[in-house]
TrEMBL record:
Stretches assigned to the DHHA1 domain: 237-320
Domain DDH: 26-163
InterPro entries cross-referenced by the UniProt entry: DDH_dom, DHH_sf, DHHA1_dom, Oligoribo/pAp-PDE_c-di-AMP_PDE
PANTHER family found in the cross-reference section: BIFUNCTIONAL OLIGORIBONUCLEASE AND PAP PHOSPHATASE NRNA (PTHR47618:SF1)
Species name: Ligilactobacillus agilis DSM 20509
Pfam families hit by this protein: DHH, DHHA1
GO MF, any single term: nucleic acid binding
Recorded superkingdom: Bacteria
Descriptive protein name: Phosphoesterase, DHH family protein
Length: 327
C-alpha cells in the first residue's frame, strides 16, 4: 500500500516514519483482550521508537493481562498527554475493539494491522493481510527504514513472541518463508528464543485441568467440526476468567479429523464469546453473521444466549461438510 503526500507517491513505511519524526509525543494502542501479537506489535514498535529517538515521549497504553506481565508492561497516562500527540493503533481491525477509547484524542492517527480491512480508519491506514502477524509488519517497518531506525533486543523479544503467538509456533497457514526469515533476524539480535518459547508454551495447573475438561467434553459433529461450551460455572470451578481460556483454543484442532472448531465461553450477561478456528475452510464470514470477524482461519464472534448455540453449531458443521465435498 502506498501513501500520498504533496503529490509525491512514497512507500507507506516512509510516510509513517515521517509522522513519527514529526511528533514529540507518541501513544500506541492495541486491541482489547490482548494476546502476544497485540502486545508484541504495540510494545515492539514503542521500543523501536524509543531506541531510535531517545528524546521522544513514547507510551504504550491499555489493560494489563496478568499472564503476560513477564513479557510487557503498560503505561497509565492523563488525558492531557494526548494533546498534539501522534496515536498509533496496532493489530486492531475495527474501532470498537481498540483498548482505551482515548485513541481518538490525539492530533494524528495511524492504523497498522494484518486483519481484513473491513473498518478503514486513521489518517494513515497500513494493512497487510498477507502478514502472519502485526508483529511481522512492525519488523518490516523497521527493515524498510533501518537507515534511520534501531532494533533493540527489547523490541526483538516482544516481536518474536508476537509472531510465535499468531502463527501457533509456525504451524498455521499464515506462516510464510518471509515469516521465518523475520523470526531468524529477530533471534540474531541475541534474544533467548528457547526461553521465550517455553514461557509461551507453559500453563498453570488450573489451565491444565481446564484443558482436560475441554478434551473430555468437546463435541465432534457429523462432518468433523468440533465445539466445547465453557459455562461460567466451569470457569469458576477452575478459577479462570474468559481471558485465561485462550491457551485451550488450539486443543480441539489437535484432533486429526477435525477441520474447524469453536470454543464458546459464557460471559457475565450469559452471552457467549466465540473463538472460531479452522484448518482450511473459511470461517470469518460465519463470524460476521454473529457480530464478529477476523482472519479466514481464525475469527471471533458473539452469541446472544444459549438459545443461539444449536443454530450456530449447525452452520459450523455445514462449513465442514462443504469442505469435505470439495476434497
Amino acid at each position: 500500500m502506498l501513501g500520498k503526500r504533496g503529490g509525491i507517491m512514497m512507500a507507506i513505511e516512509t510516510d509513517i516514519l515521517a509522522q513519527i519524526k514529526k511528533y514529540d509525543t507518541i501513544i500506541i494502542h492495541r486491541h482489547q483482550r490482548p494476546d502476544p501479537d497485540a502486545y508484541g506489535s504495540q510494545v515492539g514498535l514503542a521500543e523501536i521508537i524509543r531506541a531510535s529517538f531517545p528524546k521522544k515521549k513514547v507510551y504504550q497504553v491499555g489493560e494489563m493481562v496478568s499472564r503476560f506481565d513477564w513479557l510487557v508492561s503498560q503505561d497509565e497516562i492523563e488525558d492531557s498527554v494526548y494533546n498534539d500527540a501522534l496515536v498509533i493503533v496496532t493489530d486492531t481491525a475495527n474501532r470498537p475493539r481498540v483498548d482505551d477509547e482515548r485513541y481518538t484524542k490525539g492530533k494524528y492517527l495511524i492504523k497498522i494491522d494484518h486483519h481484513p480491512n473491513d473498518d478503514v480508519y486513521g489518517d494513515i491506514c497500513w494493512v497487510n493481510t498477507q502478514a502472519s502477524s502485526c508483529s511481522e509488519i512492525i519488523y518490516d517497518f523497521y527493515a524498510a527504514c533501518q537507515a534511520e531506525l534501531t532494533l533493540p533486543a527489547s523490541a526483538a523479544r516482544v516481536l518474536y513472541a508476537g509472531i510465535v503467538g499468531d502463527t501457533g509456533r509456525f504451524m498455521y497457514d499464515a506462516t510464510t518463508p518471509h515469516t521465518l526469515r523475520v523470526a531468524a533476524a529477530l533471534v540474531e539480535t541475541g534474544i533467548d528464543a528457547t526461553k521465550l518459547n517455553r514461557k509461551l508454551d507453559s500453563i498453570s495447573e488450573p489451565l491444565a485441568r481446564l484443558s482436560a475438561y475441554v478434551l473430555e467434553n468437546m463435541v465432534v459433529t457429523k462432518h468433523k467440526a468440533a465445539y466445547v461450551i465453557l459455562t461460567r460455572e466451569i470457569m469458576a470451578k477452575y478459577n479462570l476468567s474468559d481471558g485465561g481460556t485462550a491457551p485451550v483454543v488450539p486443543l480441539l484442532g489437535k484432533l486429526e479429523e477435525v477441520v474447524c472448531w469453536t470454543v464458546l465461553v459464557e460471559q457475565e450477561n450469559h452471552s457467549y464469546r466465540l473463538r472460531i478456528r479452522s484448518k482450511g475452510p473459511v470461517i470469518n464470514e460465519l463470524a460476521k453473521e454473529y457480530h464478529g470477524g477476523g482472519h479466514p482461519l481464525a475469527s471471533g464472534a458473539m452469541l446472544k444466549d444459549t438459545s443461539a448455540i444449536e443454530t450456530y453449531v449447525e452452520k459450523l458443521d455445514q462449513i465442514a461438510a462443504s469442505a469435505a465435498e470439495r476434497e
